[in-house]
Amino acid sequence: MRRNGYLIVLLVVMTLLPMWYVGLHGEPPSEEIAIDQSVSELRPLDGFLDTPNKLSPSQVGVIVWVALLALVAVLSAAHRFMNRAVRPEEPAAAGGTATDDTAVADGGRADARSDGGTVGFPWLSTEERWVVEYHDASGAIEGLVAMGGLTVLAIVFAALFTGEYLTLARTQYFGLYAAGMFLSLAGSTVAYYAWFMPHIEVAERRDH
């Protein structure tokens, strides 16, 4: 991690500590209100983690901030992965010599132009905008494995979520299964973008 990363983590900790201190002095815990088991088999209060029965507004605020910061970290990690992990070491510059087999983003083939054989994107390149770098999709077997595994995980979590809804309806398990399902779907999207979509860098001339 770079020095800037450590500074960001330090600022986040310095912000959350006083908020958490205030949150600890919230409302006292309240009693659980359970469902009469002689009437219904639902057990929404059952779970694998002990949680308070009631949260104060300050505690809710701390939890929301932590969740938002965690989401930013996950999105940043996914973005870095998509842009760096599966790209080739030596980028294929768009200004290089093109042949008849040069692939373009729309699935066709690029033709060498009279200005030195630049790979052309007629629907993207203009007088004020041009392609700087083009990385063709790798289509590696790792991408198929990742997408297949994540798809299976999404189906499993969806089945568990449905089963929980039809049986005990435990709140914590609802959250766990829903999070697993949506994260699996998001991961499959990231994998598809990383392995099966070309990466294009475009420069544009702007008047300021």
Automatic annotation (TrEMBL):
Region: Disordered, residue numbers: 91-113
Regions crossing the membrane: 5-22, 60-78, 144-162, 174-196
Transmembrane helix is among the record's keywords: yes
UniProtKB keywords: Membrane, Transmembrane, Transmembrane helix
Biased composition (Low complexity): 92-107
Keyword Transmembrane helix set for record: yes
Top-rank taxon, per record: Archaea
Name the record gives this protein: Uncharacterized protein
Taxonomic source organism: Halosimplex carlsbadense 2-9-1
